[in-house]
Target: Beta-glucuronidase
Amino acid sequence: MLKPRPTATRELVSLDGIWRFAVDDEAEAAPWSGPLPGTLEAAVPASYNDLFADQAIRDHVGRVWYQRDVRVPRGWAGERIFVRLDAATHAGSVYIGDALVAEHTGGHTPFEADITGHVEAGEAFRLTVAVDNRLTDTTLPPGTVTVAQDGCRAQTYLHDFYNYAGLTRSVWLHSAPALRIADVTVVTGVDGTAGTVDYTVTTTGDADVVVRVLDAAGAEVATGAGPAGRLRIADATLWRPGAPYLYDLVAEVHDGGTVVDSYPQPFGVRTVEVRGTEFLINGEPFYFTGFGKHEDTPVRGRGHDDAYLVHDFQLLDWAGANSFRTSHYPYAEEVLDFADRHGIVVIDETAAVGLNLAVTGGLTGQGAQPTFSPETFGEQTRAAHAAHLRELVARDKNHASVVMWCLANEPASHEPGAREYFEPLISLARELDPTRPVTIATVIFATSENDRIADLIDVVCLNRYYGWYVATGDLAAAEAYLEQDLRAWAGKFAKPVIMTEYGADTLPGAHSIWDAPWTEEYQQALLAMYHRVFDRVPEVVGEHVWNFADFQTSNGIHRVEGNRKGVFTRDRRPKAAARALRERWRRIGGRKPTSEETQ
Model:
């Protein structure tokens, strides 16, 4: 789905701001046929959970309602008119007046509706959106809803971050011609000093298509005609980590010599390849340094915030990080646009976190059900997973910063049924995008000996917590466990290995002269231990600390005001480990440290 952009043939109006808000106490209530009752108002984009002082709203399970009045610009007569939601977590229903015009399941990818037949240029209409935060065994992420004796619903889920919900990203009203560009796909390559650009332009009807490539200065460097083809950019400037360069593919629909629609698609010329145990960008070995992150900030919750976007990227640059993973769901597209423009590499992840019932069994002591079965996560879950993957690739396929698809975080890849569940999804990912590697972030229960899917993926990504959940406080034992584990994976699969999670909960201001967990010194020492091991194992091509910043989790006595594994606090103040990472990452500069550098 094309991101709305203002052009000579398209216009765009932001609907962000303050909306009327109400909680739906009846799960099957009919849509409101007038103004919402009550006086509550909510900010968009933002999660609603932390906006209000009422505990019942924060803990609400089910639908909530957003509403506002919208006026269509009078100049849009004769145009197609759309309403687009960048996300509604986790399911959304859109009403124009009393008419249902769109429904969507999946809380992190966009959807839209053509509302031309329901509105008029220059006139106002009532826009109402129902947002449902319930998670089930056929949603991503999964969860379970129970009903207590008092009739109140309760939500449980298997992931370790708070189930923020609402209109967490922007809402737009936009116009486009009836005969228009519906989709653009750009795939780049390198041929000597030239860049190759394979493009496909889909239109809503039969049309003459013309494409032009503009460089960063706006100069035309290549042209073509037809809905698909290959262009060549002489002496192309490549998009590189830390040194980004973007072109625009301007696609035009011509009718009788007149341009009836125009759409610019930014892209970078670059290649991605896994060769042996190396991860290559533009044919050069790349070493990932950075973090797993979350879209999580005080008050706004999981709501896109441009100020935090800019500041977080400044902190990535300050720390010497060159990459991050969108753990554990697709981030706002503005984040990827920013990464494209600033040369930060992204591992793009689906919302498939929690496909591991062994975790729940371990926490409760009751034993675990099989994760993959008709009664747990079966064909319906996989179908939802496939739909989510299709939407993710369709949205993010043209981003130069995105170099790999991560299909799940910590699934039970060691259990029976894992291969049957994941093999069709991995094949689908390669079918949707043959140009990018595919991976899965592997849980510690899955070893090199019992994992059932590692041979199917391109890069081995491991989440490991030796020194924290295993060998707590014993870094000598943890170091031995870690090295043995890494060498076993590298020896068996001969693929690049990225440590996609490692870290320790840390309270800022807690100090000790001993290896005392939760102290700033222990976090530093644990990370330093991991780095020593990474530098000794040639197959390791990346390190993503868990986490960039502290983040909110569900209620639980094993979490003190959320997950504290961030090297920055939730409000982005550095812990001691942040400076240690800065020293290491700025020194190695995105390449595997040499033996001399590790002495």
